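Fold this sequence, please.
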Amino acid sequence: MRWIMLGLTVLGFAMAFIARTPGFLAFGLVLGFVGLFGAVFSIAADRVASSARPDTAMLTTEDLAALRARREAAAKARTPAAGPTPERRA
């Protein structure tokens, strides 16, 4: 897709440079800038997709709930029972 957009950009600006009428010039400029806009976003999308985590590596809502419950249980087990504290001696 990126190469198609770059091709449209080159074609549009080439048309603008060889244009003899204002309509042909406008069409070439619009084609060139739309192609350039599409090429930039296509390159950005490829860059983001190359570093993104695949959907198969993402946790489901059930997995997240189980992890949260395990974390809360571990936190409750770690806290000492509230009882009388020994007095400090000075």
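The longest helix spans residues 22-51. The chain has a mean pLDDT of 86.
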